[in-house]
């Protein structure tokens, strides 16, 4: 193996991965409740370090390292800005916690508070009628579609002065364990318990995406430069090898 080619190739692959993650963040910069992904990179250990064979390596090349390695993508749980909508079924959460939603028989978490009431009175997310909003007991919320509805700051839902349900507000001990399931839905690994949360519920508002387009574009340009630099290094090393094989080794 040509070590320089290996290091440059790892740089191309990891920066290509990082570029895809950033591009997806930019594409969702206007998606309500979206949480951006963070592409984490780390130095890859050399083969001698992985196999604990320090006596079977080149002491001159060992300090160079094993190149770049892409780690698992992490969801940034930082809150986005609050934006007024004037729709009392839209809610934004201020503080730690998520809304509970049932989809495909599974419970998911989301910060997307765009809700509507379907014909049967079920409270669902506006982007998918199959995503039912759950109450504090993790059961679907059903209301009277003909009666005015108010949502209090603690999540209680009232119609005609009577409390009919309370929004299911939950959190997890370690937000880094959350995984995206698409459409702003998050899931927890098997065995992770949901803890009740108490964020302030703002009716008539939504939480915008926590993506800053200017920052993401800057990182995207930096990633493209690094990708191009590694690709150029592969080209330079290929030309060097070509001269080595066809010119230096030629018998005149």
Order of helices and strands: HEEHEEEEEEEEEEEEEEEEEEH
Fraction of residues in helix: 25-40%
Structural class: alpha+beta
Radius of gyration: 26 Å
Which sheet architecture does the biggest sheet show? 7 strands, antiparallel
DSSP summary: helix tally: 3
- Number-wise, the strands total 20
Query: Average pLDDT, to the nearest integer?
Result: 87
How would you describe this structure to a colleague?
- The protein has 252 residues and is an alpha+beta fold.
- Helices cover 26% and strands 28% of the residues.
- It has 3 helices and 20 strands.
- It has helices spanning 3-27, 47-51, 213-248, and strands at 37-38, 41-43, 68-70, 74-75, 82-84, 91-94, 98-103, 106-110, 115-117, 123-125, 128-133, 149-151, 156-159, 162-166, 169-171, 179-182, 185-187, 195-196, 200-203, 205-207.
């Amino acid at each position: 193996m040509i070590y320089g080619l290996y290091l440059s190739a790892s740089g191309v692959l990891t920066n290509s991965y990082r570029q895809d993650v950033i591009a997806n963040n930019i594409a969702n910069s206007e998606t309500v409740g979206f949480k951006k992904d963070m592409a984490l990179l780390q130095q890859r250990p050399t083969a001698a370090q992985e196999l604990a064979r320090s006596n079977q390596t080149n002491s001159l090349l060992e300090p160079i390292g094993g190149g770049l390695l892409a780690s698992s993508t992490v969801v940034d749980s930082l809150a986005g800005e609050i934006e007024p909508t004037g729709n009392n079924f839209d809610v934004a959460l201020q503080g730690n916690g998520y809304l509970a939603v049932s989809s495909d028989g599974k419970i998911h978490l989301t910060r997307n508070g765009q809700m509507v009431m379907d014909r049967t009175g079920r409270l669902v997310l506006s982007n998918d009628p199959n995503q039912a909003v759950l109450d504090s007991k993790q059961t679907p919320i059903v209301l009277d579609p003909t009666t005015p509805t108010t949502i209090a700051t603690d999540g209680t839902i009232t119609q005609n002065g009577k409390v009919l349900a309370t929004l299911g507000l939950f959190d997890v001990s370690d937000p880094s364990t959350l995984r995206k399931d698409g459409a702003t839905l998050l899931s927890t690994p098997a065995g992770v318990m949901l803890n009740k949360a108490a964020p302030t519920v703002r009716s008539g508002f939504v939480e915008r995406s926590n993506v800053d387009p200017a920052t993401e574009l800057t990182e995207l340009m930096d990633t493209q430069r690094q990708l191009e630099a590694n690709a150029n290094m592969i080209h330079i090393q290929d030309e060097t090898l070509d001269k080595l094989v066809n010119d230096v080794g030629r018998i005149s």
